[in-house]
Amino acid sequence: DDGDSGDSGSSSSGDLTIAVITHGDGGSFWSVAKKGAEDAADKMGVTLDYQESNNDPEKQAQLIEAAVTADVDGIAVSVPNPDAIQGALQQATDAGIPIVTLNSGSTVWQDLGAITHVGQDEKIAGEGAGEQLAANGGTKMLCVIHEQNNTGLQDRCAGAAETFGGEVENFQVTGTEDPSKTANEIAAKLQADTGIDSVLALNPDIAMAALEAKDTAGSDATIATFDLSGDVVSAIEDGDILFAVDQQQYLQGYLPVVFLTLFNENANTVGGGQPVLTGPGFVTKDNAAQVADLAEAGTR
Amino acid sequence: MTTTTAGQGAPMLEMDHVSKHFGSVIALRDVSLHVDAGTVTCVLGDNGAGKSTLIKALSGVHLPTEGTLKVEGEQVSFGSPRDALAKGIATVYQDLATVPLMSVWRNFFLGSEPTKGVGPLRRIDVVKAKEVAREELARMGIDIRDVDQPVGTLSGGERQAVAIARAVYFGAKVLILDEPTSALGVKQSGVVLRYVVQAKERGVAVIFITHNPHHAYMVGDHFFLLNRGKMMENWTRDEVSLDALVRAMAGGAELEALAHELEELGGDVKHAAREQIDHLQAGPS
Amino acid sequence: MTTTTAGQGAPMLEMDHVSKHFGSVIALRDVSLHVDAGTVTCVLGDNGAGKSTLIKALSGVHLPTEGTLKVEGEQVSFGSPRDALAKGIATVYQDLATVPLMSVWRNFFLGSEPTKGVGPLRRIDVVKAKEVAREELARMGIDIRDVDQPVGTLSGGERQAVAIARAVYFGAKVLILDEPTSALGVKQSGVVLRYVVQAKERGVAVIFITHNPHHAYMVGDHFFLLNRGKMMENWTRDEVSLDALVRAMAGGAELEALAHELEELGGDVKHAAREQIDHLQAGPS
Amino acid sequence: MSTTTAPAAPPAADERLAKTGAVTRIFRRPEFGALLGALGVFILFAVVDQTGKFASLEGAARWTDSAATIGIVAVAVALLMIGGEFDLSAGVMVGSSGLVLGLLVTEMGLAVWPAILLTFVFAAAVGALNGWLVVKTKLPSFIVTLAMFFSLQGINLGVTKAITGTVRVDDIDEGAGFASAEKVFAAQFWDPYQFRVAVVWWVVLTVVATWVLTRARFGNWITAVGGDANAARNTGVPVSRTKILLFMYTAMSAALVGVITSLRLQSVQAGQGVGSEFTFIIAAVVGGCLLTGGYGSAIGASIGASIIGMAFIGIAFAGWNTDWTYLFLGLILFMAVMVNTLISRRVAGGRR
Amino acid sequence: MSTTTAPAAPPAADERLAKTGAVTRIFRRPEFGALLGALGVFILFAVVDQTGKFASLEGAARWTDSAATIGIVAVAVALLMIGGEFDLSAGVMVGSSGLVLGLLVTEMGLAVWPAILLTFVFAAAVGALNGWLVVKTKLPSFIVTLAMFFSLQGINLGVTKAITGTVRVDDIDEGAGFASAEKVFAAQFWDPYQFRVAVVWWVVLTVVATWVLTRARFGNWITAVGGDANAARNTGVPVSRTKILLFMYTAMSAALVGVITSLRLQSVQAGQGVGSEFTFIIAAVVGGCLLTGGYGSAIGASIGASIIGMAFIGIAFAGWNTDWTYLFLGLILFMAVMVNTLISRRVAGGRR
Ligand SMILES: Nc1ncnc2c1ncn2[C@@H]1O[C@H](COP(=O)(O)OP(=O)(O)OP(=O)(O)O)[C@@H](O)[C@H]1O
Ligand SMILES: Nc1ncnc2c1ncn2[C@@H]1O[C@H](COP(=O)(O)OP(=O)(O)OP(=O)(O)O)[C@@H](O)[C@H]1O
Ligand SMILES: [Mg+2]
Ligand SMILES: [Mg+2]
């Protein structure tokens, strides 16, 4: 895999730069992943270059190319759209830069030339949530999509629909930029369709909005969510929210930095050809107390 | 002087029972008028009488609410001023219709840019355009600093000169001038009057709107008087004296009252007032 | 006539060696002028001479590039026209300074709205404002249909009348009029001249800009002649005849050339041309 | 307002005026088109409603709630637009002020009421800075407030993460005086239907802004400044002061929404409000404001906000597939403005 | 252009003109401020760069890539803005045309070249519809194109999900003729640095648009229509035709970017392009276009796009914490425009 640019090499250990380039949006999910990457970079003593493309595949490709140009020592990427970034990743492998994929991409990481994959497909996480809600006796689910252009959210809902069994309706709302309006939209939906008995939020703020909406609409639907926040954990403890899907995205940021550093310094590879899975984990009433403080601190 | 010199019988421009409403405002009601080639037709009237509305109906800016227009005997309906221009009708609007942020030469040729080159490379002949614009303005006695200056930074008179020079340059068959000399100096006004006479000599039909009865009488062959949106009088030159024209435009009775009032003011004012009334009532020579 | 009637020695308004540049354009250079209370000062000059720039420097629109302004002997620097208005200087701008989309009465009182009520409930006295606007316009001979009509839909003369009526209504110490009669009818022009005389009688210092030497001579006590941005002449009324004024404004030599040229055109035109030249050179009475 | 043969100055009926009824005059008001559009949207959703609840008080409680938080700022944005300026930072300001309130309460331990006061002071300062920069640099407000938008967006995320380690501020309800503040800003009323108190704020502010625009001197100045800033300046209107005050009002109304939202949800997210600046502008423009300034109405902006509120809630009641939400929104917008043009133009008479 | 003592008509030097050097004249061009701002941004990032690559050709290859896809549309949007109109559907049009291309190739089995042709026809039709609606209804283009924006956004998502079951169209590279189309629209060139061919399109279109704006009749009409549509109409400019053509050009340039992007990424996402309409407008305004129309330059919009491209790549090279990205963007924008105002105003002389 040694490309044509052997000039400034990746040997000068102790002064490594690892680029982490996700399709994230700086929101509640990705801020935890970023924190993981930062903590890992601190511990490993490497320089971190964390970039996000906000769900824009072209921008992500451009950021990868920029990292290749900057001659980093390792690139960790999320792969929501393999076609879109394969050209850019090819440049990285041509330049001899090791790659680790994270979050989505568990089926394509080998084709992209990555040394391993850390994460959990959004779709598999969704499947888990669907199962749990079905087990809770749900028959009709509202899957609340708060960002229209985010493929990850669509994948979560698609996964949930596959395992839920009952009827699943995707519901587009305004989003986190206006949670009160979002709450109101969910309330209207719950009022309009009284058959809904399960609501799956894909973001902790949307979960809190759904909780308020349930109250306003006088509905008794079960609410579940993706990802954690202090409010969500206490709501789980109070029994207002059934569970939160926890992909442990902290690890999705942390581990690739560690793996890439070890690869550079010690030529280690992890996983033995298998992806490293970080979830899905579930935070329920039983284990909520354990993660409460961690969620407040922004690492869960 | 009132017979056409270039026409084949039908007047160059004819307006038949035209009305124009703006919502509830009735600006023109049942106005008829005809303009012959090689003559100067003056439209006179008080402020708000409807003169500008009338010429805008002639030049394609307004679509008349009722009535018809004819050009050389043929009925027309102008969809836009571009149609009127295509028929050789060029207009100086009272609000001048210049684009403030564009340069003098671009405004001069706006809508009728001289081009050179062919096909996709056809482009404005900038050198020629600048030259012509500068020359035409100089002929009017306006020595522009720089034809690249935005029109919006010109003085009021300079801007008016641009609009006039443009219309004179492009006016093929009909030239319409709406209060063209209002912002001009003595010299420049003289030039515009000369232009009017020259155009008429060339067989162009000229419509001239002014508040100055002396100017009107000097060049006009035909006089229409508008009042509150209605056509009140239709005189040829030999049917009317300057005196009658002044009186008609100023509203005789009210002028007397004004004279009286001014008389009552004391001292030097009396003298000035007397002079003014004389001027209003009589005019020069 | 040139001595102040209301002043305490210092002129009401004084401009000292003022220059005004716009980028590379030099619009005024080293202009000095003084205006006394109770007199009418005329500023004359060709198109683009810098008259409007001069009055804009006096009314706070432009900050002079060089030179100083004094009001009643006290040096001032107007940050905005509001400052000038506060000193009792009201102006009719050549471009009228009206807001097209606002109604007639709102434009009339813009910046000086009459209010009623107190505290947070202080509001415009709409009834009074409409009444005053209608009355003042009627006094000028403008019978407005509806004072709620947007100014942008008024005729050119009506719009000018709004600007004049407003300035006359608010002009306390100094009244500046930049070509106020350009778009007005005969009758309305007469009214404006009467206003000028009335204001002067009340001890107001009036600055009057016009291209009409007859109007200027009728009311003026003091004449300043601008040419290409420089102050060329400074006459009191008894130093100058109407004839000299006309000649100065039209540029003697060029006028002769124009006369000659017009002579060469044939027929009736000769007559019209002769008349015109006479008019330009002599004026009425 | 007195087009017809009123007992005013001109003695007899003016023959230069055609007769116009009161109807025609109403049709010429800037907000009238929006009102027609709103009616159309309301009827549409009342018809397609699957639940029979949209046209009820229950439904009204829902869409007025959505409309209120848009409308409160949209009215201010409308005034600013009439004054000839934009504020792209109005959206993010909702989030910023919520975060200020949240951090003051949860991190600085302030009581809720003083924190609210400080939040408004903060918003007023940001608005004044916007206005001052626009007036001083003479740059387009689009650019100045865009820079402010980006800066605040960055500060919101950066500061929140630096202080809390997460992207949100939680537990505002633990602050002293929360209960009383919630009553004023975030409570519900009229029990079976659960209207939001934000609706009251919205209505009151719309009425006040309309009164200011049409009756107060300041309103006259706003219209003049936006219609022709030069002419306004030349007639003695304090242009700079007017503009700065408008920017302050806009920022403070955004802060009001920030306070309402954060008290209601008891938490604030760092990305809150981003993107809604355009919703406000859309509401104002649908309500009849010209983007070029000098024309528009406050009540129109509120009607525009209602259209948006009804559209979002109506789609939920209609049970439409939300994959197509934006297509519906687009068609509704087309419809609202077509109704406006077709009917009001026919009634008000030709233009050209 | 000939302010100084040129050998032109007036015989001697005009005493009413102060001497101005060529420098001062350049400083008065609309795009000059943006150029200064761009220089400032470039220097800033060259200084803070952590990699030593930003100011190299390699770095240039990266930021020009990012600037190119913005610039291609921003130039069209600038012309449209100079013509007095907005197109809020320009962003989503990038996605729509990519989806049309993708669906034609993958679902209808068309070869790539005919599909590209049909994509441009589609874009031209949408642009013409935009223009026709604006001209006919006389509604603000902000509203009309907003409705179009929403409609297309809804259609993009709805149709894509209905046809493919996902929110993405994949495998465009399997179409016939993909290789040759990729060469024209999405290849790289100048080997060690790997510039994108989109940059060539961008430069060529900027030059053509500049030429049209300053030299062609159509350019004169654009400026006139935006400066004063009434005056333009009265002097015989075909206002409606000019506007409709501008809308068509804008939509087609968005389609070009759509084609470039989808060939490069070999896939299209339903939400692609949404939001970038404002990036285009920002680039145009930073480049000196007035929002009120009638003033601006095509090259300025390209400079504006460069500033955005440099900021985007520069922040990555500088290794700054992305929490603060937007704050940096805001400050850079402030800086770019302040440099503009301070320097260019000082040089060009006073205003009032
Ligand atoms: N677009 C419009 N909407 C409403 N009223 C209008 C409109 N245009 C003109 N008017 C009204 O129609 C009347 C005639 O206006 P017009 O401009 O034709 O007068 P005019 O004779 O040219 O006056 P002036 O000598 O002052 O220029 C005026 O009273 C004016 O208020
Ligand atoms: N803002 C400006 N920028 C550049 N040049 C200007 C500006 N304002 C005025 N000028 C120039 O200054 C000169 C004087 O203009 P001004 O308006 O004072 O003339 P004026 O004497 O009022 O003429 P008129 O009788 O035609 O109204 C003109 O040549 C004009 O082109
Ligand atoms: Mg007129
Ligand atoms: Mg002047």
TrEMBL record, chains B, C:
InterPro entries: AAA+_ATPase, ABC_carbohydrate_import_ATPase, ABC_transporter-like_ATP-bd, ABC_transporter-like_CS, P-loop_NTPase. Residues 13-253 form the ABC transporter domain. Coiled coil: none annotated. GO terms for molecular function: ATP binding. The keyword Transmembrane helix does not apply. The keyword ATP-binding applies. This is ATP-binding cassette domain-containing protein. The lineage of its organism: Bacteria, Bacillati, Actinomycetota, Actinomycetes, Propionibacteriales.
TrEMBL record, chains D, E:
Pfam families: BPD_transp_2 (PF02653). It is found in: Cell membrane. It is a multi-pass membrane protein. The chain crosses the membrane at residues 32-48, 60-81, 88-105, 111-135, 142-159, 193-213, 244-265, 271-291, 298-318, 324-343. It comes from the Bacteria. Keywords: Cell inner membrane, Cell membrane, Membrane, Sugar transport, Transmembrane, Transmembrane helix, Transport. PANTHER family: ABC TRANSPORTER PERMEASE PROTEIN YPHD-RELATED-RELATED (PTHR32196), XYLOSE TRANSPORT SYSTEM PERMEASE PROTEIN XYLH (PTHR32196:SF32). Part of the binding-protein-dependent transport system for D-xylose. Probably responsible for the translocation of the substrate across the membrane. This is Xylose transport system permease protein XylH. It comes from Nocardioides taihuensis.
